[in-house]
Design a protein that fits this description.
Chain lengths: ~100, ~525
């Protein structure tokens, strides 16, 4: 299960994720991002309530990061230690802006 | 020639060839004239030779009298009948060699007969009942089936007359039953347990073509039905429904797997006494394993020594080792649980058996039955199922089943004090492997994946094994992605297996018996 809470003001968007970002739920995030980020220059992904991420979730994050690099910036916030370690291992901590 | 009202018996003597065939046929026809559809028996004890002219007589008789039997065919005559295909067309019984077992060492006592060592490399299993030929035929057939399916066993090469009954002759060179190894060398108990379990697993891993062997579950249901009138109504019903709830299983079970039926010959471990061979769920087999090592001697410990030759305590130790190896766990709770479930079926069997042998009419019998019954009732209070392999999940390899897999793994991890981080890593690695099977193993066809979880103590370690029957593919052989590249240079994908390798303590792959087997290990 993945809940996505979107807060959009002008060109700034915050996506708060709750639950699991896995093979089954990643397409939901991918579609939600696609539908909303066209005019966004400042994207925040709040992972405070995200418990789990697999490579399918990482792929969505990487692709969002690439898109945002062209039109603005993206940051990832409130990462728990288990997910943080996944970012470390995969080199994502060097790619993503993590707060 | 002699005749009775219900059959005609014809003795054939000397030689039958084209010279005397016509005369003999006339004589036979006189005997059969006016008769219809009666069984006809040709006794060939004194027949030395039969030519094709003689065989044609048999065929003509067979046409009018389909129920035709030939008995006591000498090996020479039998060979002619076999070569010409007559043994396929009619019932032909050989003249059996007579074998004496007087003074021979008894090396085994089974349900249907006694096994004697006749000389250094020959043993004979003498059957108890006089009409044992069908049993012997059955045992030879199932032994042959087992051998073809890869189970090491001895097949009898001859059938002989032993007293008023029959015996099966086997070649067993210097073979020793595991019971005597355990009795004389208790220090070899670990070795015995390992070999005993390896063979047991091999039997239980052998898929039997449908209809070739009886279903042991049917037999066990019969025991439980018999027990209904001897148990309180609710307990009897619970027992029956627990047995009925055990799923049908097409894998082989031996049915009487005790340490006298497992032999060491040279360095090969052989299974004997195949007449109880069946298919069924392993719990039914473990029940008889329990009975043979403990159950039947639980009240009077000396019984184990007199049957198996070793002490009750050795039986106890051996059973625990066997269950531990069989279940692949050292967790005493798990071992106890499976032993208890085996006891439920085991006590049911022994109580029924004792009652049928008029156990209720003797003091000793009544004491035994009461003893077993008390234990059975207690176990029926404690358990609701006989199943013990929820450590395995078989599911269709489709993406939509990922939540099922997650739930299964989570359930197992709940039983451990698994830290959140390790929990996520185990779930992550499992997902990556499963998705890999979904995407590559069977595409574009469909198939299943089998997942096994094992949690071992000391040190606590979770092992998850994935099996599929798709194309052989080693995902670990793929080169790791370069995780130092910048976002623009990174490929989207290829991270799943890499993450699996990085977060697990051990990841291994093998292709065996037509299966991709991928094993994950995580120390907690």
């Amino acid at each position: 299960m993945l809940n996505i809470e979107k807060r959009i003001t002008d060109t700034k968007a915050v996506f708060a994720l709750e639950g699991r970002l896995d093979t089954v739920t990643s397409p939901d995030l991918e579609n939600a991002l696609k539908a909303s980020i066209e005019k966004i220059t400042d994207l925040e992904l709040d992972l405070g309530k995200l418990e789990y991420i697999s490579s399918a979730g990482l792929r969505v994050l990487l692709s969002a990061h690439k898109t945002m690099n062209k039109q603005g910036s993206m940051k990832v916030t409130n990462v728990n230690s288990a997910i943080s370690e996944i970012f470390e291992v995969t080199g994502f901590s060097d790619i993503l802006t993590i707060e | 020639m002699s005749e009775t009202n219900d059959r005609v018996e014809i003795k054939l003597k000397g030689r039958i060839d084209s010279g005397n065939a016509a005369a003999i046929e006339t004589e036979i026809q006189q005997k059969l004239s006016g008769k219809e559809n009666v069984p006809v028996l040709f006794d060939m004890t004194d027949l030395e030779y039969i030519s094709s002219a003689g065989l044609r007589i048999l065929l003509r008789v067979k046409k009018s009298f389909p129920d035709l039997t030939i008995t006591n065919a000498s090996s020479e005559v039998y060979e002619i009948l076999e070569m010409t295909g007559f043994t396929e067309m009619m019932k032909v019984e050989k003249a059996y060699r007579v074998m004496s077992v007087e003074g021979c060492e008894v090396i085994g006592i089974g349900a249907n007969g006694i096994v004697y060592r006749v000389d250094q490399d020959t043993v004979v299993k003498a059957y108890k009942n006089a009409d044992a030929l069908e049993d012997i035929q059955h045992e030879r057939e199932v032994a042959r089936l087992a051998l073809i399916l890869g189970i090491p066993t001895a097949i009898s090469y001859d059938v002989v007359r032993v007293g008023d009954s029959y015996g099966s002759v086997f070649e067993l060179l210097n073979a020793r039953p595991f019971s005597s190894i355990l009795a004389e060398h208790p220090e070899k108990i670990d070795w015995c347990a390992k070999e005993y379990v390896d063979l047991l697993k091999k039997i239980h891993g052998t898929l039997v073509p449908e209809g070739k062997l009886p279903d042991l579950k049917d037999t066990v249901i019969g025991w439980a039905e018999f027990m209904q009138e001897y148990l309180p109504k609710d307990k009897g019903e619970k027992l029956l429904s627990m047995i009925k709830a055990v799923p049908h299983d097409d894998h082989m079970v031996h049915g009487d797997y005790h340490t006298k039926n497992v032999m060491l010959q040279g360095d090969e471990v052989l299974l004997i006494d195949m007449d109880t061979l069946a298919v069924g769920h392993p719990i039914f087999e473990l029940a008889s394993v329990f009975n043979s090592l403990q159950g039947y001697a639980e009240l009077d410990h000396s019984l184990l020594k007199s049957f198996q030759g070793y002490d009750y305590e050795i039986g106890r130790e051996f059973l625990t080792k066997v269950l531990s190896l069989y279940l692949g766990t050292t967790n005493p709770k798990k071992i106890q649980e499976v032993e208890d479930k085996a006891r439920i079926v085991g006590y049911t069997r022994m109580i029924r058996r004792s009652i049928r042998r008029k156990g209720l009419e003797t003091e000793q019998g009544r004491a035994e039955i009461a003893f077993w019954k008390e234990r059975l009732l207690k176990l029926l209070d404690e358990y609701d199922t006989l199943l013990f392999t929820p450590d395995e999940l078989v599911l269709d390899a489709v993406e939509e089943n990922l939540p099922l897999l997650q739930e299964f793994i989570e359930k197992h991890l709940e039983e451990t004090n698994c830290p959140a981080k390790a929990k996520m890593q185990i779930e992550l690695a499992s997902e990556e492997i499963f998705v890999n099977i979904v995407n590559y193993a069977y595409a574009p066809e469909k198939g299943t994946a089998t997942v096994r979880v094992e949690v071992s103590d000391d040190p606590v370690c979770v092992t998850i094994t994935f099996l599929d029957r798709g194309v052989p593919y080693d995902p670990l052989a793929k080169e790791d992605p370069d995780v130092t590249l910048s976002a623009e240079d990174r490929e989207i994908g290829g991270l799943g297996i890499f993450l699996t390798k990085k977060t697990m303590d051990d990841v291994s792959y093998e292709y065996k018996d037509g299966q991709n087997i991928l094993t994950l290990k995580k120390n907690l």
